[in-house]
From TrEMBL:
Organism: Cryobacterium mannosilyticum
A UniProt-annotated Pfam family: DUF6457
Residue span, DUF6457 domain: 8-89
Protein name (database record): DUF6457 domain-containing protein
InterPro entries, alphabetized: DUF6457
Domain of life: Bacteria
Length: 95
């Protein structure tokens, strides 16, 4: 099993632009910082594997509720709040 070297930040931009184009989305509509913050909150408050699944659910919920930037922000805020409370309400390993 090989390990990959960390990618430079511009590689993330290139990947998101390519994926957005493949999915017929406008890269400008992707709130990268918001989604990365959500992933951080979930990874630290719940568990690392919950982060990508949570961002998917936020995207799905936002799309079903209209798909606007406000819908994404609302779903992300709800998920982040839940994740932060989860970490406090469900301590693991004595934290």
């Amino acid at each position: 099993m090989s390990t990959q070297a960390p990618l430079p930040p511009e590689a993330l931009d290139d990947w998101l632009a390519a994926l957005a184009a493949a999915l017929d989305l406008d890269p400008a509509d992707i709130p990268v910082g918001l989604l990365l913050d959500l992933a951080r909150d979930v990874a630290h408050g719940v568990a690392r594997p919950a982060a990508p699944l949570s961002t998917f659910l936020v995207g799905l919920a936002a799309a079903r509720n209209g798909g606007t930037a406000a819908d994404i922000e609302r779903a992300a805020a709800l998920a982040s709040g839940l994740a932060l409370a989860w970490g406090e309400d469900h301590p693991q390993d004595g934290r």
